[in-house]
Amino acid sequence: MGKLICSHCQKEYSDVTLAWKCECGGFFDLPFTPRFPLSLISSRKPDMWRYREALPISSWEQRVSFGEGYTPLSSLSWRGHQLLVKQDHLFPTGSFKDRGASFMVSKLRELGILEVIEDSSGNAGSAMAAYCAKAGIKCHIYVPESTSPAKLTQIAAYGAILHKIPGSREDTARAAHEAANSIYYASHIYSPYFLQGIKTISFEIVEQLSWRAPRAIILPVGNGSLLLGCYLGFRELQEAGIIDSIPRMFGVQALNCAPIFHAYKQGLQQPVRIETKPTLAEGIAIKEPARGKQILQAIRDSHGEIRAVSETEITEAMLELARSGYYLEPSSAAPFAALPKLSGYFLKSEEVVAVITGHGLKATDKFQQI
Length: 370
Ligand SMILES: *Cc1c(COP(=O)(O)O)cnc(C)c1O
Ligand SMILES: [Zn+2]
What we know:
Layout: E1 3-6, E2 12-14, E3 28-29, H1 38-42, E4 73-78, E5 81-87, H2 97-111, E6 115-119, H3 123-135, E7 138-144, H4 149-157, E8 161-165, H5 169-179, E9 184-185, H6 192-198, H7 200-208, E10 216-220, H8 225-239, E11 248-254, H9 259-265, H10 292-301, E12 305-309, H11 311-323, H12 330-337, H13 339-342, E13 352-356, H14 364-369
């Protein structure tokens, strides 16, 4: 059996524990040293499992996979910049969350777990529901009642048991935490396994640039699993001597719900309670990001920045992107909307990657609304 270690007090736990964080409140880490046999990697099938020596699983042959990953890195001329666009909406369930779900559900199967709970504003729930369906794991998904109908339908279609919770995203989290006293909590926010899957996005970007790091990466931030997974991946590549430095990480939030942005602006180490308003960008509408402190650290460590964009800026970017052939969820349009506010941080000639996180087909109602 493997073990988990508290990132705060170093206490050890068995990897089949029902606990989803340490008694001290710290998050679990996995003690593991990744390897990158480059020529072997390049000879394999183009999916996220080509980096298997860098994924802490004993039997990757038993993985739960649809052949996902190695999404295209295309170029887009956007408001005066030549961007590289990592198209992570091109996953089986329509969002990058499949990276985390594929790895986490593979790990759950390895651990012999048969029933799980997850809470989500939609996309993580869809991803967990799909991978659990493939693995034959019983899956309960807690969602805010106000989640997009397309996402609710998708989750239910995969056969997951849907629990619609009235109130805020935080009320949904509380309901899930209560249920997690008796059922394994496969949380995309707390589980270290989820980040292990997400980190493959960094491996892919670096491989697609012939094993070089881009200058900067721009991505939307809600709970920060994308940002922290990316950061973990780049750190591992740097520690393995494959890249010299970590790209500057630029996180983008919706101004209507921007706890990380406000904390960053005030020089705080961790987010504080703020007033929020509804936003079209439901994928990043997270008022109390549990890993807020880690997100702020990662941004500062990479010499990045955090920015917030208005509803109008998001809407304009969505429509403009669609007219360039990219049909994205509002949350995915946020980084593109922020580009004018970030353009002082890099030269026009430097490589900048923007991540597309979710497919527009999930947000038909939002497109109708505008
Ligand atoms: C989950 C999600 C995000 C934000 O990711 P976090 O890991 O919560 O920061 C952004 N866009 C879409 C479409 C998402 O589903
Ligand atoms: Zn601890």
